[in-house]
Amino acid sequence: MKYPETKKDSTTDNYFGAVIADPYRWLEDDTSVETEHWVDAQNSLTENYLIKIPYRADLKKRLTEIWNYPKETAPFKVGEHYFFTRNDGLQNQNIWFIKQGLNGCAELFLDPNTLTADGTASVSLLGFSKNKKYLAYAVAQSGSDWSNIYVMEIATKKQLADELAWTKFSGAAWYGDGFYYSKYDEPVKGTEFSEANQFQKVYYHKLGDAQVADKLIFEDNTNPNLYFGAEVTEDEHFLVLYASAGTSGNAIYVKDLQDPESDIALLVKGFEHNHSVVTNVGDKLLLSTDLNAENTQVVLVDPKMAEPKHWQKIIPESNLALESVRSGGGFLWASYLKNASTHIIQFDLKGKEIAVVKLPAIGTASGFGAFKDDKDFFYSFTNFTSPGTTYHYDIESGKSTLYRKSALKFDTEDYQTEQVFYPSKDGTKVPMFIVYKKGIKLDGNNPLLLYAYGGFQVSLTPAFSLSRMLFLEHGGIYAQPSLRGGSEYGEAWHKAGMLDKKQNVFDDFIAAAEYLVKEQYTKPSKIAISGGSNGGLLVGACITQRPELFKVALPAVGVLDMLRYQKFTVGWGWVVEYGSSDKKEDYNYLIKYSPLHNVEDGVNYPATLITTADHDDRVVPAHSFKFAATLQEKHKGENPVLIRIERNAGHGAGKPTGKLIAEATDVWSFVFQNLGINW
User: Fold this and answer.
1) Angle at which helices 33-50 and 622-634 cross, to 10°
2) Is 182 a catalytic residue?
3) Contact predicate 533/556, CB 8 Å
């Protein structure tokens, strides 16, 4: 292929005596005219390649058919009302509905599709006032993490004049006639999507006030790289403030809101362990923590005697990883992971086990929890072959009743899932789900998609994907290993795949591919690998370490420059996971696997389709730009190396249906073409 010419310059950096060239540094300026021209040229090349695939239009038609069915989320109760989202099938954004009482008539509450012409604005509900009269919600544009917060009166559906700008990763923790929220200072114009976000602060906003009048509640002028978030207990007894230096490990501060003279006091120090307040029991707090419990435990803490030696154990550590705990109906609902699937146990507030919740099958359940006085709630259940199904759960009887089944027009009964355990390079047993059409022959000739993540305590549990069904119906096999770096087996599993042990993650993924070849599910010329964000790093690292093992690579919005990632937006928050090239001991291992810095001249790399977006302010597109330019320069062979840059989109959240289908069409067309799958 003839790739667009990408200018190289003489930019270098000196890392502890090692001079590292960065000839495509200029692509980091994502708003320059020069970068814009490069993006246009690359998108044109990619489109010219994809348009020649004869079945691309038919593939899009089939994807659209699969996608086009009514979808509805599980309702949740707030006062007299139930809230849920609905999508008729192909609407760009889900629409929020409300109904009074479970059997009430559903009324349109908030339609994000009316906010922009192209459907790129997304809405998330942040919090409800204690009297259930008001709701704070956030609007994000074009997939950016930046959002504005607005307030609506629930009964009248009237939007109030309140508007809070430059919020990111914020909730709305209501107290009295206002709420606590987190914001950053306004960035310099032109750098909104790339400048490092620093000095996040917590404010209190009183309804009706202009944002400039909001009261500063919490900040740390000595450390610019901290996240801050606020919660208020259901009874408005405590303000809980979370501080974290990155994506794992935090400190917690509390204030007794019933005592006007009380100060904000440290409850548990940071940042070595993970802690979360579940609820309060009077003047004490139930705390979920992995301090002295790598699989996490629940303890009762008196804020006046907060040292760990005074903690009272409520739910002891189990041999299963405790993923989350929520309160509801006067009970605790503990969600464990059992071989990467959901396992729910109900406890009373003193830690007595009440029941193991019987789930419909092996899979992923979410939504357990409610307000203190609720008698029931709804939860969602999904797995690889079951789209989201909603169940009504009666707390007193402990019975689940089917509330709403998916209207998907696709026969998922033809497919089966198995779980295997395979050895990694160091002998560690790693679990992997494998999904395929019943009756498939394991003769080593099946096209296979290998997908994983491996980081940031993210556990990959069974989940349904609409577009993946297209691959399965055409004879594809889907494999999903639970790599180290996640928390499928608790914090020890996470720590075994972070910092200087990150190579374990890549070894686990490579070993998964080798196992699938050995067991004759597939062969290297039929393997596509995929991952997004930290999973994009996974794909990039694996194709530079074992290019001959894979035929197709799909790194999406990936962290690909491990020497400079911490210099953009919230990249500094990942230093606790990856380490930083600013430290010699970290640089020494980062340089060994950084995808950008391990592309070699003259290697035949897999057919690669890199995907990113111009409004991605989580993992800035410069990672993908520089990696694409480097691969195109050094790669030698017939396999195409392309990059697809979405306009008016971000890291993935809030992406409209139209863009999701268009992207899935292009990605699957590329996969089918390069794996030789018959349409």
Assistant:
1) 60
2) no
3) yes
Annotated catalytic, 533?
yes
Residue identified by tokens 């073409």 is 673
DSSP letter assigned to residue 484: B
- Among 636, 573, 625, residue whose Cα is nearest residue 603: 636
Which residues are registered as beta bridge partners of 78?
81
State how far the Cα of 295 lies from the Cα of 313, in Å rounded to an integer. 14
Please give the C-alpha separations between residue 123 and each of 78, 83, 120, 449, in angstroms, as whole numbers: 18, 13, 10, 32
* Cα–Cα distance for residue pair 581/656, rounded to 1 Å: 36
Instruction: Kindly list the domain boundaries of the chain, sorted by start residue.
Output: 54-64+410-675, 71-114, 318-407
Indicate the pLDDT class of residue 617, thresholds 50, 70 and 90.
Answer: confident
The SS3 assignment for 210 reads: coil
Other Cβ atoms within 10 Å of 9 Cβ, number = 11
Cα 24 to Cα 437, 456, 553, 581, distances in angstroms: 44, 28, 22, 18
* SS3 assignment, position 40: helix
| Measured distance CA(137)–CA(289) in Å, rounded | 29
Exposed, middle or buried: residue 536 (CB in 10 Å: 0-12, 13-18, 19+)?
Answer: buried
Distance CA 447, CA 469 (A): 14
Please determine, for residue 647, whether its predicted confidence score (pLDDT) is greater than 90: no
Could you name the CATH architecture of 54-64+410-675? 3-Layer(aba) Sandwich (3.40)
Q: Rg of the Cα trace of the chain?
A: 25
pLDDT in tens, 412-451: 999 999 999 999 999 999 999 999 999 999 999 999 999 9
Please identify which of the residues 122, 533, 580, 594 carries the catalytic annotation. Answer: 533
pLDDT digits (tens, 9 = 90+) for 173-211: 999 999 999 999 999 988 898 898 999 999 999 999 999
How many beta carbons lie within 10 A of that of residue 519, not counting itself? 13
* Catalytic entry in 273, 482, 651, 669: 651
Positive or negative torsion for Cα 489, 492, 493, 495: positive
Are residues 544 and 569 in contact, defined by beta-carbon separation less than 8 angstroms? no
Alpha-carbon distance of 202 to 215, in angstroms, equals: 9
Instruction: Report the SS3 class of residue 346.
Output: strand
